[in-house]
Amino acid sequence: MPISSYPGDPLDVGLAWNHRFASLGEDFFTPLSPSPLPAPYWAGRSTSAAHALGLDPAWLQSSDALQAFSGNRPLQGGLSLASVYSGHQFGVWAGQLGDGRAILLGDANGWEIQLKGAGLTPYSRMGDGRAVLRSSIREFLASEAMHALGIPTSRALCVTGSPAPVRREEIETAAVVTRLAPSFIRFGHFEHFCHHGLHDQLKVLADFVIDQFYPACRTDARWGGNPYVSLLAAVTERTAEMVAQWQAVGFCHGVMNTDNMSILGLTIDYGPFQFMDAYDPDHICNHSDHQGRYAFYKQPNIAYWNLFCLGQALMPLIDAQEDAIAALEIYKDIYPRAVARRMAAKLGFSETAEAQVPVIEGILKLLAADKVDFTIFWRRLSLWVREQRADDDTVRDLFLDRAGFDAWLLSYSELLAQIPRGLAADLMQKTNPAFVLRNHLGEEAIQAARAGDFTVVADLLKVLERPYDEHPEHAAWADFPPDWANQIAISCSS
User: Does 2 score more than 70 pLDDT?
Assistant: First the structure.
């Protein structure tokens, strides 16, 4: 298959290209070049992501890199394409979807390199194929922040901007974010081929995913040795672990459609996401989600629903419905254990125990009742355990229900007394971040960038890359959000 061509001499940056996805054939994608981005400029770069890709961070400062990751210059050995998939959106079958604004440059050194906002594709569905600076900065910072928190995620190498106008709710300016992942294959890829009766292609896709990412499925003796049931079980396990991590850190995805679910259990497609400020299980971060389908507390069940859709898509290969159900049922065991383990660590316990259950449930009820800031509470509790000061009311002062908190603290302290306090404090400080990408911090970075100041993006990235450190020079970023933060609206266009 010929390499797609677009203007400019190819740049040799020393990447070892593989093109695994392209090897599947054109039933799975359309060869396509990015649309050039006029007058690009740097908005943000991640040295950490460059190292992961095997790219020289110094080269990432160059004008050649700027042109390449704006879609204006090809990379030598690259192969650009847009992938086709389908999916359920807000619980409704949406039919054919696909990469409507993302173009894959190929995969190199084990990473697929994708330009989001690189122009129209055959799957744009009346869209313009562009991303805007606002959403691109949010995805760039969120991807790297989630990685630093230890949550499975796609990465973001860089974001470039342009004065080119793009219409959303209002006229904004264009941008391209360069995303990295071992694979961008989604549940929706499998749904696409199943729905259209393309079972040969479905098998090719499933075999590819197994051989590339889940080879143990070939030797799994469960379910009569059917590797496709094993694949469903493996994806179920990864997804359960990922969502447990979301819930433990207060992360709201906002649009958990099946086309936004990674077959590798990665957090992908950062649109109307949010790290909660005040703890509210009913919180809906996506203003387009009028029915509250993707409210924070519903995320675990939605993940299971999406996995069920994946199971249905794999049925032509699985055949035995009871086996598919059995593979999905492991979610009901893995997720509760995963979230219990995460919550125990937040309290300083390296192992889970039955006695922790009422303590965990009790503090979540208190946090919800008083709308206590989720991140600040857990960080202050970590510091309280470390300092061991009887006169320290920094945690108690977060609550209106002082008597309720005092009763909870007594129960918690009784459990805490059974383990070395120093070890508990150390675990808590490595588990409860001081800094997360709150909406207002992203907004401050966006507004500065719109004014031509990209230092806020860079400084915020440095802090989010080490979220468990104190960063006294940026202590304000760990403080309560300003009142105006409540007015920030994020939607499916974010």
Answer: no
Helix axes 356-370, 331-346, angle to 10 degrees: 80
Reading the block at residue 467, the tokens are 């979220």
DSSP state of 254: S
- Amino acid letter, residue 47: T
Nearest to 289 by CA among 251, 252, 254, 250: 254
Write down the domain spans for the chain: 21-181, 187-341
For 77, half-sphere exposure in the C-beta direction (CA atoms, 13 angstrom radius) is: 12
pTM above 0.90, yes or no: yes
Sequence-ordered list of residues with C-beta below 8 angstroms from that of 90, at least 6 positions apart, any chain: 257, 289, 291, 293
The type of residue at 386 is: R
Q: Is the pLDDT of residue 6 over 60?
A: no
Would residue 259 show up in a list of annotated catalytic residues for this protein? yes
Specify whether the CB–CB gap between 38 and 162 falls below 8 A. yes
With a cut of 80, say whether residue 4 has pLDDT above it. Answer: no
Helix H or strand E segment including 173: strand 171-181
Which of 107, 259, 269, 370 is the catalytic position? 259
Which residues make Cβ contacts (< 8 Å) with residue 376, sequence separation at least 6? 398, 478, 479, 480
Q: Going along 221-358, which residue ranges are E strands?
A: 251-252, 274-275
Q: How far is residue 300's CA from residue 312's CA, in Å, rounded to a whole number?
A: 19
Give residue-wise pLDDT tens across range 412-424.
999 999 999 999 9
Provide CB contacts within 8 A for 350, sequence distance 6+: 344, 419, 423, 427
Looking at residue 186, the DSSP 8-state letter turns out to be B
Q: How many CA atoms lie within 13 A of 130 on its CB side?
A: 23
Nearest CA-CA partner of 141 in 444, 469, 474: 444
The SS3 call for residue 413 is helix
Phi, psi (rounded to 5 degrees) for 425: -65, -40
Sequence-ordered list of residues with C-beta below 8 angstroms from that of 275, at least 6 positions apart, any chain: 249, 250, 251, 252, 375, 436, 437, 438, 439
Asked whether the beta carbons of 175 and 165 are under 8 A apart, the reply is no
What the block records as the tokens of 204 is 């090719």
β-partners of residue 259 are: none
Q: How far apart are CA 82 and CA 56, in angstroms?
A: 26
Q: Within 13 A of 29's CA, how many CA atoms are on the CB side?
A: 26
Residues 122/126/130/135 CA torsion (nearest 10 deg): -120
The residues, any chain, with a CB within 8 Å of residue 367's CB and separated by 6 or more, are 279, 374, 377
Burial of residue 63, with CB atoms counted within 10 A of its CB: 0-12 exposed, 13-18 middle, 19 or more buried: exposed
CA dist list (Å): 259 to 89, 338, 405: 8, 24, 42
Which candidate, 80, 141, 150, places its Cα nearest to that of 115? 80
For position 485, what pLDDT does the model report?
87
The set of residues, in sequence order, having a beta carbon less than 8 Å from that of 81 and lying 6+ positions away, is 4, 21, 22, 29, 30, 31, 32, 103, 104
